């Protein structure tokens, strides 16, 4: 990278002459190598899913979660440096709890996205801190059942999304998400899509072991609570996902065979 | 001489001159905490039966002797397995129910590990909070009953008060109920062993009888109450249950006070 050796990448509080903050760009690099994380905002709620690469066979299954419950109705999935994600989630939990203390009501998703976006941005301003090495996907439902999905980048930039993807497989995942009619599917249907998308986004790094972590939140489906997708449903979704991917491969093989003929 | 409590144990003004309070931050003298409850709820009664617990508390909040609020819910469901009933100061109860317990439940959900807090855990937490506050001489002015299932899936019932005192029994009641309801309940549940012989219907009937007796004799009670039944199926909590078969005929036979001559 051209920034190396120029001295403009050593501190957060220094811009390069062409107006870039290199520390923020480096943080984004940390995210690009993290396991894929996606969020789908459907008609009745939100589904979050991550591809969790298994670092060691010695780890307890389902340990080291990468999707966290922030409040009853809010979940955060993230991609990038896991300890940074933990710190980010703890901060989000404090914010949501404080909102409840002050207003005796659950924090709107837009408000927590705004708070955490502001926090991430503040971490790009000072030489005493570094930006969060994560991109966070915040999903949840408001008190009236309206789903909300936001993605916050290390720069503090955040948008509301219908479907969001980050991490290593984000390009493939985004392409798949764009094909979905998110406004008209339920989260129960979206769980299957999410499993398929994570599996297909994993294609490139096939040799590595991975697990899918999936949570959902919907006013009707989960009573407005952010919960782990029930085991049976996730297993079914993964079974279908694998089948769908094998189907694609078969098609490709057949095509190749035809071509060869 | 000044006999108000804040002067107890202090040097007498007539001998030592006025006490210089100027160094104190708040001008009123010594720091004071709650010394009496203001808006209050009365008894909570509960009884174990074979396979669960029944609990009741009326829906009144009194402001002194004035029946101020008549639709107050003094029993709260906490998670899937537990109910908590509170008597005493209503604002302290709301703090316990809406702030503390809610935040405990939400923090438990962070784990997402399939475990849930059961009645003994909630009870232990509440008793610790009450005791902690009494050690600061800043009481949460409540007496509470916690009912549900314990870790062995057996019915659980216990009480804690503003001092942090813990007590457990198959039949419990707080406030005026401790005087009037417990004798009624102990007739069918004298000890832990007798609980296995009590059916759900019998327990509900006994609790309903207690609520009636309490309404007859407790001037801070009302004829509408919350009734909670914990069974294998979970918690069944109904608010606004009306008192049945009320009859004031016995009042004519009461002697010893009022205008009538014996």
From TrEMBL, chain A:
GO biological process: ubiquitin-dependent protein catabolic process
Region annotation (Disordered) ranges: 239-261
Annotated coiled-coil segments of the chain: none
Residue ranges of domain Proteasome alpha-type subunits in the record: 8-30
Record localization: Cytoplasm; Nucleus
Cellular compartments per GO CC: cytoplasm; nucleus; proteasome core complex, alpha-subunit complex
Keywords, sorted A to Z: Cytoplasm, Nucleus, Proteasome
Short name of any one Pfam family annotated for the protein: Proteasome_A_N
Subunit structure: The 26S proteasome consists of a 20S proteasome core and two 19S regulatory subunits.
Similarity comment: family membership: Belongs to the peptidase T1A family.
Described purpose of this protein according to its UniProt entry: The proteasome is a multicatalytic proteinase complex which is characterized by its ability to cleave peptides with Arg, Phe, Tyr, Leu, and Glu adjacent to the leaving group at neutral or slightly basic pH. The proteasome has an ATP-dependent proteolytic activity.
Name of protein: Proteasome subunit alpha type
Annotated source species: Terfezia boudieri ATCC MYA-4762
From TrEMBL, chain B:
Primary localization: cytoplasm
Keywords: Cytoplasm, Nucleus, Proteasome
Superkingdom of source: Eukaryota
One GO cellular component term noted in the UniProt record for this chain: cytoplasm
GO biological process, alphabetically ordered: proteolysis involved in protein catabolic process
CDD domains hit by this protein: proteasome_beta_type_4
Short name of one Pfam family: Proteasome
Cell compartment(s), UniProt: Cytoplasm; Nucleus
PANTHER family with a match to the protein in the record: METALLOPROTEASE TLDD (PTHR32194), PROTEASOME SUBUNIT BETA (PTHR32194:SF6)
Family: Belongs to the peptidase T1B family.
Function description: Non-catalytic component of the proteasome.
Name under which the protein is recorded: Proteasome subunit beta
Organism: Terfezia boudieri ATCC MYA-4762
Lineage, opening ranks: Eukaryota, Fungi, Dikarya, Ascomycota, Pezizomycotina
């Amino acid at each position: 990278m051209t920034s190396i050796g120029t001295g403009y990448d050593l501190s957060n509080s220094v811009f390069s002459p062409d107006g870039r903050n290199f520390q923020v760009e480096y943080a984004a690099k940390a995210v690009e190598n993290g396991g894929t994380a996606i969020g789908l905002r459907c008609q009745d709620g939100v589904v979050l899913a991550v591809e969790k690469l298994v670092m060691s066979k010695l780890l307890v299954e389902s340990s080291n979660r990468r999707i966290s419950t922030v409040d009853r109705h809010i979940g955060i999935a993230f991609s990038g440096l896991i300890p940074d994600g933990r710190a980010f989630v703890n901060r989000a939990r404090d914010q949501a709890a404080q909102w409840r203390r002050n207003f005796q009501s659950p924090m709107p998703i837009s408000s927590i996205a705004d708070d955490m976006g502001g926090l991430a941005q503040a971490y790009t301003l000072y030489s005493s801190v570094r930006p969060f090495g994560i991109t966070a996907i915040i999903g949840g439902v408001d008190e009236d059942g309206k789903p909300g999905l936001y993605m916050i980048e290390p720069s503090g930039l955040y948008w509301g999304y219908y479907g969001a993807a980050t991490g290593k497989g984000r390009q493939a995942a985004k392409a798949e998400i764009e094909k979905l009619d998110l406004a008209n599917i339920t989260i129960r249907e979206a769980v299957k899509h999410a499993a398929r998308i994570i599996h297909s986004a994993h294609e490139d790094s096939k040799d590595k072991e991975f697990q899918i972590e999936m949570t959902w939140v919907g006013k009707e489906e989960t009573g407005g609570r952010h919960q782990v997708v029930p085991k049976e449903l996730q297993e079914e979704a993964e079974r279908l996902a694998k089948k769908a991917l094998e189907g694609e491969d078969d098609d490709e093989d057949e095509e190749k065979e035809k071509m060869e003929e | 001489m000044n006999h108000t409590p804040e002067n107890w144990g202090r040097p007498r003004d007539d001998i030592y001159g006025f006490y210089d309070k100027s160094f104190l931050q708040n001008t009123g003298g010594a720091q004071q905490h709650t010394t009496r409850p203001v808006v209050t709820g009365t008894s909570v009664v509960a009884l174990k039966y074979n396979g669960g617990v029944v609990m009741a508390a009326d829906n009144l909040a009194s402001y002194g002797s004035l029946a101020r609020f008549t639709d107050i819910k003094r029993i709260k469901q906490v998670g899937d397995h537990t109910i908590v009933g509170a008597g005493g100061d209503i604002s302290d109860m709301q703090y316990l129910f809406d702030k503390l317990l809610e935040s405990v439940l939400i923090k438990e959900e962070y784990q997402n590990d399939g475990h849930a807090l059961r009645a003994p855990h909630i009870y232990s937490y509440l008793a610790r909070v009450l005791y902690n506050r009494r050690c600061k001489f800043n009481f949460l002015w409540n007496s509470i009953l916690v009912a549900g299932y314990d870790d062995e899936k057996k019915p659980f019932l216990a009480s804690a008060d503003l001092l942090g005192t813990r007590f457990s029994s198959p039949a419990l009641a707080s406030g005026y109920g401790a005087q009037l309801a417990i004798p009624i309940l102990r007739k069918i549940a004298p000890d832990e062993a007798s609980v296995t012989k009590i059916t759900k219907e019998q327990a509900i009937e006994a609790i309903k009888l207690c609520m009636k007796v309490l309404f007859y004799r407790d001037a801070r009670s009302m004829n509408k109450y919350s009734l909670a039944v914990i069974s294998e199926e979970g918690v069944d909590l109904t608010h606004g249950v009306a008192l049945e078969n009320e009859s004031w005929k016995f009042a004519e036979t009461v002697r010893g006070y009022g205008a009538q001559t014996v």
